[in-house]
């Protein structure tokens, strides 16, 4: 009997879904190497491999068989071939640009555990999709707003969320789209370096974001009376600013965000919040030329930098802080704790803070491989983002559940079926 790869779901799954991988038809206790690979939309190759030994019956089920040392990972890791994918090109991060097409995952089984792959025994292809059937993708060019709205199947209305990414700019849609698969109306909002928006991150006007909030609140498919905000990195402190100054926000979730304004001047009506000061002398650069920028920002509790602390005590919403404790972009845990202190000092509800040891800066939806280092637009060189791949992967799975439970609880009034905190 020839070896074959058995996948469940068989031909196609959503990117944030578990994929069960098994090999049948091997020899008893046969040693094999499994390899996964995919190419992103720019053609860059990502690969992972692992060494396994089949059972006495010639079956190999990744949910029951631990990977042996010598590959990209070891131990019992049913999704290891996905989260351990690494780019062949240095400092390259896996992102999805066109959510309407899937990533094509290639799986191969080779004989033995040698340095070079042995004979090819079996192969399979699998689509990792971003849009669930029936989810509508609606480009939004409304007034000044440049965005994409994702609406779940059905008549709605649905709990509404605005999703913001960080200093990379443009209009990333993949997180918003994956979230819409779970029953939310999600607006992926661009705020610079996209179409006719400002090309550089010099100053932001909250009136633009206010327009986006009003667009969502007036949409027939969006369930009021308020909406949620989800922001990562720079998108996080923009969400804190929106929640602090604008109306209509019920729940704000931050992924490694800051409670101080960072990177650009923030304006709203007659209010100006300067960006937190940066001291480039505190940047450490390794012999390989990779920068560690964790100490670059000034402390927002000291001197004139206190003016950069966003007055989040003005917010009328609940907060969730998702924190990677090995974030090397900035001190996310410090920001979360100081935000919590500020809220409680003003008689506000204590925010939820979920900390993940071993998780770095880019906490993405589940099964995105960890990006250890990549180019930083503001620093102009590769920087380390932190994280340990296995712990980071587990953090992404749990954080995704925490975020959905938080929004269901505060936007839809549903009891949260959240998983336990790590």
Automatic annotation (TrEMBL):
Stretches assigned to the Acyl-CoA thioester hydrolase/bile acid-CoA amino acid N-acetyltransferase domain: 16-142
Please tell me whether the keyword Iron-sulfur is annotated for this protein: no
Could you tell me which residue ranges the BAAT/Acyl-CoA thioester hydrolase C-terminal domain spans?
Answer: 205-412
Q: Which SUPFAM superfamilies match?
A: alpha/beta-Hydrolases
Position of the signal peptide: none
Tell me which UniProt keywords the record has, alphabetically. Fatty acid metabolism, Lipid metabolism
Q: Which GO terms fall under biological process for this protein?
A: acyl-CoA metabolic process; fatty acid metabolic process
Identify the Pfam families for this entry. BAAT_C, Bile_Hydr_Trans
Gene Ontology molecular functions: fatty acyl-CoA hydrolase activity
Q: Where is the active site?
A: 233 (charge relay system), 327 (charge relay system), 361 (charge relay system)
User: Lipid metabolism among the record's keywords?
Assistant: yes
Q: Which family does it belong to?
A: Belongs to the C/M/P thioester hydrolase family.
Q: What is this protein called?
A: ACOT1 thioesterase
Taxonomic placement: Eukaryota, Metazoa, Chordata, Craniata, Vertebrata
